[in-house]
Specification:
Blueprint: H1 7-29, H2 35-41, H3 46-67, H4 76-95, H5 100-128, H6 131-162, H7 169-189, H8 205-214, H9 216-233, H10 239-247, H11 254-279, H12 281-291, H13 293-301, H14 307-323, H15 325-332, H16 341-366, E1 368-369, E2 375-376, H17 378-410
Antiparallel strand pairs: 1-2
Length: 411
């Protein structure tokens, strides 16, 4: 555990972690609303765009597996700051990429560092915040997703559309500059976290990782989180393209759609975390998992409708899809012993990225652009996502049982 913090120190601690989450999530998120721009400027199709998205997620998945070898052997703060500095460099490289193939490689490096950062931030929260308050703490950190849509995505779209000499490069340069400030904030406010180093690692490290990976309760957690990610990320990458091509929404309103969804999720994240702590994480997850399927189905079957209808549905979609992650991560983080939590959470991060990458690639292969310029077969992607969502509703009971078992054995 880290040193005891005052409430004010804890707020700045969580703010620094949320800032890191904000930038690496924004680095991934910005690709989605810019989909139509990338397809036009780089002269690529929907499948190539899906591959460009997946270069980030697949690299993050591979890096997460590699990170399991060392993540529990280093002091958390030093490792976090070092990886974040590398992430900033990789993101800057995306902004200066001269063509599609170079951008593809730069995105892979950004994903490699960003993916490890995501799981490491969640590990640090789990190491530092008691379980009874962890839902609210994770809600604070995961509100970074909301902030990235409230401010980051619309601002990045604004930069891409109005700094004409940079175009799509502007958002990446913007993210890199903001990340430098957050790196300083993290340096000042994240204390050393050494508790996990008290455990003596004996024997083969590969054997230890293998044992963590194949434990039956861990396998269930991997499948559960993979399905949670696939439910959302089969649909999310192609929302902007579908709204502009099929629903008839002007491209200038895409920022407004993300802005409304982001503001709503920013307001709801801490509330959902509080509800998860108060009423039980399983109950809150089940409610969100079922209700979220309604706007998901509407999103993938929507025809030409007024903007206000789109705003109501998309805002509900963002609130519910992102809200599921708060009780889900709180439960999953408690399935494992603290001494191997870094290894386990790195594997969880890899599963999340791999699942989202698979979802975007499969969805990109299913959807096509017809002769009339409209996206086809998006509804099939939605039906597949619904199946994944229903499976998470069924699996969450097993995750809860594994979490309770670990609490009993740890006491």
């Amino acid at each position: 555990m880290s040193s005891v913090r005052t409430p004010q120190q804890e707020r700045f601690f969580l703010l620094a972690l949320a800032g890191i989450q904000f930038t690496h999530i924004l680095d991934f998120m910005i690709m989605m609303p810019l989909g139509p721009e990338f397809i036009r400027v780089l002269n690529i199709n929907t499948h190539q765009f899906g591959l460009l998205l997946s270069s980030y997620t697949f690299a993050a998945a591979a890096a997460g597996v590699f990170a399991t070898y060392y993540i529990d052997r280093f002091e958390r703060r030093q490792l976090l700051l070092s990886l974040y500095a590398c992430f900033i460099i990789a993101t800057l490289a995306c902004g200066f990429a001269p063509n599609y193939h170079t951008l593809f490689i730069a995105r892979a490096f950004a994903g490699a560092f960003g993916g490890i950062l995501g799981s490491l931030v969640q590990t640090i929260v789990a190491d530092s915040i008691p379980f009874e308050r962890r839902g609210k703490a994770l809600g604070t950190v995961m509100a970074a997703f909301s902030v990235s849509t409230v401010a980051g995505v619309p601002l990045s779209l604004f930069l891409a559309n109005h700094i004409t000499f940079l175009g799509w490069r502007a958002p990446f340069i913007f993210i890199a500059l903001v990340s430098v400030l957050i790196l300083y904030l993290a340096y000042r406010n994240i204390p050393k976290i050494l508790g996990h180093l008290d455990h003596v690692h004996e024997g083969s490290r590969f054997k230890q990782i293998y044992d963590v990976a194949i434990a039956h309760q861990h396998l269930r957690a991997f499948v559960f989180m993979g399905l949670v990610m696939m439910t959302g990320f089969a649909v999310i990458p192609y929302i902007a393209l579908y709204l502009t091509s099929n629903v008839g929404i002007d491209n200038s309103y895409i920022s407004l759609i993300y802005l409304c969804g982001g503001i709503a999720t920013l307001m709801s994240s801490r509330y959902i975390g509080h509800m998860a702590d108060k009423y039980g994480k399983v109950k809150v997850f089940k409610v969100l998992a079922i209700i979220s399927l309604v706007p998901l189905l509407v999103t993938t079957n929507l025809g030409p409708v007024p903007l206000w209808v789109v705003l109501i549905n998309s805002t509900s979609f963002f609130i519910l899809i992102s809200g599921r992650m708060i009780p889900a991560m709180a439960m999953v983080s408690q399935v494992v012993e603290a001494r191997i939590r870094g290894t386990f959470m790195s594997l969880i991060g890899s599963v999340q990225m791999l699942a989202s990458g698979i979802a975007s690639v499969v969805a990109g292969a299913i959807v096509t652009i017809g002769a009339d310029g409209k996206m086809q077969h998006y509804n099939l992607v939605g039906y597949g996502a619904v199946i994944c969502g229903l499976l998470t509703f069924w699996l969450v009971g097993y995750i809860h049982a594994d979490q309770k078992t670990n609490q009993i054995t740890s006491t």
